[in-house]
Design goal:
The complex is a heterodimer of chains A (527) and B (152).
Chain A (H helix, E strand, L loop, with lengths): L11 H14 L5 H9 L5 H15 L3 H7 L5 H13 L6 H10 L3 H14 L5 H6 L6 H13 L6 H10 L11 H13 L2 H9 L6 H14 L4 H10 L2 H14 L2 H12 L6 H14 L2 H9 L6 H12 L4 H12 L3 H12 L3 H7 L3 H13 L3 H14 L1 H10 L8 E6 L3 H13 L2 E6 L2 H9 L6 E5 L7 H9 L9 E5 L4 H10 L3 E4 L4 H12 L1
Parallel strand pairs in A: 1-2, 1-3, 3-4, 4-5
Chain B lengths: L5 H16 L4 E2 L3 E3 L3 E14 L3 E7 L1 H12 L6 H26 L4 E3 L3 E11 L6 E8 L2 E9 L1
Antiparallel strand pairs in B: 1-7, 2-7, 3-4, 3-5, 3-6, 4-8, 7-8
The chains are: A mainly alpha (527), B alpha+beta (152).
């Protein structure tokens, strides 16, 4: 049995061995000796550190001693006991810790006490956490929010809601405080109708980061959010409907698709942007009803909406849908042209492959492909045709024009697949060599690789890096100070646009827009 | 992510920078970044694994990095670029080590990777975890630096 007698006089290696043994045996007899070594350290950093570890080990099976130590005169030992109480979740330590927390003035020690209490997770500590919710130190405040969320403290819900509401104040909304983040997470952890409903209401928070955090939280909660998202969809304005439809799509619950179809039938998706969002969501969820609704959507005439429909259907290619689509495309009317164009522009290779079996539909698609001036699209469909093989496919490949890449370069960033396809079509039509990215970071990667662009088109809300930050970074990049940047957005509030203008956006285009509107704007900016 | 993880890093950053570079940084108000990009002129990045996995970065503005190097090396600067790189790597390593020791005392054991240093005006660094990134800004008389955490 290791003993601490004459420890200070021993060799370094012997000291290490002894402390190691104690850490393993956790012998309570060694406690007084270890405490003495902690209070009057040997002076060698590694030994002193090992003393702490050994003490931690011995105390871990000695709840009474830990509770005693919580009020010890020696500050180092006191902190150690506070930590051990939390680490091993000693329930009986909760009471004494609560008492100490009442009067603790030192923020570092208070943080330690609160952290331990949070780990013990005893409901008796809720008043303590509530008391420090208003502490000036954001970390202490955040710890209390986390703890109250973990303890599911119903009485704090109102407070958290208030925090989230206040975070939208004119002088505060530009920054997402960590306390706001924690309040969202805490509210989400309750996962009850009231809190979910509130988060859904705040989906349109003024700060894009908060909005993202709320969206992620709702997606994590999943299916229980569906009813509240519908309430928001049915009672909300256009922006709310779009956001609700997006979240429903990401949640991916079947009931979400059914509800969206019902809302669609009730005429609640008349707005082209809402329609677009609903089709995208239905494509993501992919239930039978949703797919039928998407097939109905094949009669849409807006280019963008049609792209969302085709993009959605691409994920669920089935014989019934292909046969309807074939009938529509071989009709050779205006709608056939639009559909063929949409298949090409969204790079719906699965649908293309299936439609191509029908010679008439195949011809229509090849016509649309030949019209496209986008080299990447050509390359992709050439590969599909090569895979299909046979005389007809070879002839069709031969029919395709050889493209010269544009001399002007454009960069477009948007997280929506359909919007990307639309941008690509517009830009290649104008003769640009086009670089596409699904978020700001990917877009900026091109710039870091040394690409130069004549124009940049970006969405505002994107994951990973949003449009605002992308614009900010571009403006600080040599060579990009004056490049025209167009931001495409559905945001109606002036606050958002002001932030974007400050960041350096040259012009805005509000969704929905006709391809010609964006084309005209590009031509106008480039002269 | 629990905020308790951040405190030891803040303490370590203040301790290490005041000891090594004789600059006392002032802690600003922490905030959350949506994207996973750390921006600065010189950044030291360490991966952290253990009870939780994540990454921690320290991004220094040019002025701040140069001032720290000058304070650490005095007039013995040969090549400012190399010295800044070395110094930031060294500081990141020390801060990561000290913070991990602090966390170990709380029963949270982490291993840290060797730091990577990235330089270049307005460069970007990707944190690996998908979670939101907590950023803590610091100010010194010679410029700012930011610590960012991203834990799964």
């Amino acid at each position: 049995m290791a003993t601490l007698d004459g420890f200070r006089e021993k060799e370094f290696l012997d000291q290490i061995t002894i402390l190691n043994e104690i850490s393993g045996s956790k012998d309570p007899e060694t406690l007084p000796g270890l405490v003495e070594l902690l209070k009057t350290p040997v002076g060698d950093t590694s030994i002193d550190y090992m003393v702490v570890n050994a003490l931690n080990a011995v105390l871990s099976s000695n709840e009474n001693k830990v509770i005693e130590g919580l009020t010890d005169d020696h500050p180092g030992y006191r902190i150690l006991c506070i930590r051990v109480a939390g680490e091993h979740a000693f329930a009986r330590a909760a009471g004494p810790l609560i008492n100490i927390a009442e009067t603790e003035a030192d923020p570092d020690r208070l943080m330690e006490i609160l952290t331990s209490l949070a780990r013990i997770a005893d409901t008796s500590a809720t008043p303590t956490f509530r008391k420090y919710l208003d502490h000036e130190d954001p970390f202490i405040k955040s710890s209390c929010i986390e703890a109250l969320g973990k303890l599911k403290d119903q009485d704090s819900i109102q407070y958290f809601k208030g925090m989230l509401a206040e975070s939208e104040a004119p002088d505060r909304f530009e920054v997402c405080d960590i306390t706001t983040w924690k309040a969202v997470e805490a509210l989400a952890s309750f996962a009850q109708d009231e809190t979910i409903g509130f988060l859904v209401e705040k989906l349109h928070h003024k700060n894009p980061t908060v909005r993202r955090i709320i969206t992620d939280a709702l997606i994590t909660i999943g299916a229980p959010t569906v009813p509240m998202l519908f309430t928001a969809f049915e009672s909300g304005d256009t922006d709310n409907r779009i956001l609700a439809a997006n979240v429903l799509g990401f949640v991916g619950d079947r009931s979400g698709a059914d509800g969206l179809v019902a809302a669609f039938d009730k005429g609640m998706a008349e707005d082209p942007n809402v329609r677009y969002a609903v089709f995208e969501a239905l494509g993501r969820i992919g239930t039978m009803k949703g797919i039928i609704c998407l097939v109905d959507g094949l009669s849409e005439t807006e280019e963008l909406t049609l792209m969302a429909v085709i993009g959605g259907l691409e994920k669920h290619v089935n014989p019934g849908m292909i046969s309807s689509l074939t009938d529509l495309i071989v009709k050779a009317d205006d709608q056939s042209d639009r559909l063929a164009k949409a298949v090409i522009a969204t790079k719906a290779t699965g649908i293309f492959d299936a439609l191509y079996e029908n010679a008439g539909a195949g011809d229509a698609l090849i016509d649309a492909l030949a019209e496209s001036r986008d080299p990447e699209i050509h390359e992709e469909f050439r590969a599909v045709l090569t895979d299909i093989g046979g005389g007809r496919a070879e002839n069709d490949i031969a029919r395709l024009p050889t493209l010269s890449t544009g001399t002007r370069k454009a960069l477009a960033a948007d997280d929506s697949r359909s919007m990307c396809a639309m941008h690509r079509a517009i830009l290649t039509d104008l003769g640009f060599e086009t670089f596409m990215a699904t978020n700001g970071e990917e877009a900026y990667d091109y710039v870091e690789q040394g690409e130069e662009f004549d124009i940049v088109i970006t969405d505002m809300n994107m994951p990973v890096m949003d449009g605002m930050e992308l614009v900010g970074k571009l403006r600080n990049t040599p060579g990009f100070e004056d490049v025209p940047i167009i931001m495409v957005t559905t945001e109606s509030e002036s606050a958002q646009q002001e932030m974007a203008e400050k960041a350096g956006v040259t012009a805005f285009v509000t969704k929905p827009f006709k391809p010609d509107t964006l084309k005209a704007k590009i031509e106008e900016l480039l002269g | 992510m629990n905020v308790e993880l951040a405190k030891p890093f803040i303490k370590a950053a203040v301790d290490v920078i005041s000891t090594m570079a004789f600059v006392k940084p002032t802690v600003g108000k922490p905030y959350v970044k949506k994207n996973n990009v750390a921006a600065g002129d010189v950044t030291g990045l360490v991966g952290v694994t253990g009870d939780k996995n994540g990454s921690v970065s320290l991004s220094f503005s040019r002025g701040c990095a140069v001032a720290i190097v000058k304070n650490m090396l005095g007039d013995e600067i040969d090549d400012i670029m190399t010295d800044v790189k070395d110094a930031v790597g060294e500081l990141t390593n020390m801060i990561s080590g000290q913070a991990r020791a602090g966390l170990a005392e709380k029963g949270l054991v982490f291993q840290g990777s060797t730091p990577t240093v990235v330089m270049g005006d307005g460069h970007t660094i990707s944190h690996m975890a998908k979670a939101p990134i907590m950023a803590i800004p610091f100010t010194t008389p010679d410029g700012d630096f930011t610590i960012e955490f991203c834990f799964e």
